[in-house]
Amino acid sequence: IKHELHDWDDTGVRTIFRNCRNAMQTGDRLLILEMLTEHPEFLRDSACKWYDFVQMCGPGGRLRTVNEFESLLTECGLSLCKVTPTKLWDVVILEATLAATSEGDHSRNA
């Protein structure tokens, strides 16, 4: 999922994550490419702060922290297993797998 989740509020992101979880098999990985609010460049760059404000006022989404993504993933039966920075200062790759309790249980709609 690349540069999409910032357009959604938490309820919408949960729906997306649950749909991904239901489509995943053991060993599959979900890759998320997003900007994070705690990135040092974000904290220095007023344009990024403005972007976050626009997201909240426009489509109703927002930028998130790693901890916020991890919490949303966990709520949906996924587990954040890796965070990889990229050469693009504002983008990281979040890697998630099925949580141990949800593997093989794709009927759960938590």
Walk me through what this model shows.
With 110 residues, this protein is of the alpha+beta class. Helices cover 37% and strands 18% of the residues. The chain is built from 4 helices and 3 strands. The chain has helices spanning 10-23, 40-44, 46-57, 66-75; strands at 30-34, 78-85, 92-98. A 3-stranded antiparallel β-sheet has the order 1-3-2. Strand 2 and strand 3 (92-98) form a beta hairpin. The longest helix is centred in the N-terminal third of the chain and has 14 residues, at 10-23. It is globular, with a radius of gyration of 14 Å.
Q: What are the main properties of this structure?
A:
110 residues; alpha+beta; 3-stranded antiparallel beta sheet; 3 strands; disordered C terminus
Q: Please provide the count of β strands.
A: 3
| Helical segment count | 4
Order of helices and strands: HEHHHEE
**Which strand-content bin applies to the residues?**
15-25%
Q: Shape, please?
A: globular
- Radius of gyration over C-alpha positions, nearest whole angstrom: 14 Å
For the largest beta-sheet, the strand count, sense and barrel status come to: 3 strands, antiparallel
